[in-house]
Amino acid sequence: MAYLQFRRESEAGGVGRFYGLVRRHWEHLLEQVPADCALCRGKSRGLQLCDACRLDVTRSMAAPTLRCAVCALALEQPGCPDCAARRPAFDRVIAAFDYAAPGDLLIQHFKARHRFSHARMFSDLVAGAVLAAKPALPEHTIMVPVPASRASLRRRGFNPAAEIARGLAPRLSFALRPELLVRAREGVRQTGLSRAGRIAGVERLYECPYRVEDAVIAVVDDVLTTGSTLDSIAREFKEAGAASVIGLVVARTPYSLQV
C-alpha cells in the first residue's frame, strides 16, 4: 500500500479530530489538579515535576556542554565516539535530559516499578526540548514510537515509548502513526549487551510496511544509549523513502555509562 493512500485513509472522518479535542480538554483539566512532585514530593500540578526538580533534571541539557550535533552525546572533547564507531542513519537526536541523577531515577521508576503516570511528565519534558530545539521540526513531522517486544509488554503491561508518544503528539501537533513501524522478530534484551552485541541484536529487528516518500519521521523512545536501535530503525525508514529521521528521547546515556 502506498504511503499517501495510507495517510488519507488514516485521516478520513471526524473521529480522530473529535478524540483529539476531547484529549486536549482533558489535558487542560488535568494540568490544574494538585499533585506531588515525582522527585521531592513537594507541591506540583498535573502529575508534573515541581519547578525546582524540573530545573535539576534538565540542567545538564541547558548547560553550554559540548555535544555531538547528531546523537546529542555530551563530549569532553571534539569528536563523537558513538558516531565515529558507525556513521548513524538518523539525522538528529533531541533529548529532554541526560541519563544521570536525578533524572535516571524517574526512568527506573517508570520502567521497573511501573509508574505509568510518569509517561505524561516525560511527554511534557520532551515537548519542551523539541520546542526549544533549533532548527525547529517541520509541522508535517510524523511521530512513530519504537515497538516493544511481547516479553516487555507482558513484564510491564505497557510500551513506554508508545505512552510517551501518545502524550507528546498532541503537545506538538504532530501526526502519530505507530503502524508505520513493526517488529520483524522478537530479538533479545539489550540491557547488559556490549556495543557490538547491541548493534547485532537490532539488525533488521524492525521494518516499515509502507512507503514513506519524503516524510520527516520522529522516532520516540525512552532512553538512547549507543543509538543502535535508532540507527537500525532509521535505515528501515530511509529504505522506505523517508527524507529524514529524528530521534526524540527522554534521556541520553552518557558515554561513561554505556556498556
The main sheet comes to: 5 strands, parallel
Residue fraction in strands: 15-25%
Principal-axis shape equals globular
Measured between the Cα atoms of the first and last residue, the distance is 40 Å
Spatial order of the strands forming the largest sheet: 3-9-8-4-5
Q: What Rg is obtained from the alpha carbons, in whole angstroms?
A: 18 Å
The beta-strand count equals: 9
Counting DSSP H or I runs of 4 or more residues, the number of helices is: 10
Report what the structure shows:
There is one protein chain. By secondary structure, this protein is of the alpha/beta class. 41% of the residues lie in helices and 16% in strands. It is built from 10 helices and 9 strands. The protein has a 5-stranded parallel sheet. The longest helix is centred in the N-terminal third of the chain and has 16 residues, at 15-30. It is globular. 36% of the residues are buried. The model is unreliable at 1-13 (pLDDT under 50).
What's the quick description here?
The chain has 259 residues and is of the alpha/beta class. It has ten helices and nine strands.
Question: What are the key terms here?
Answer:
five-stranded parallel β-sheet, alpha/beta, 259 residues, globular, 10 helices, disordered N terminus, single chain
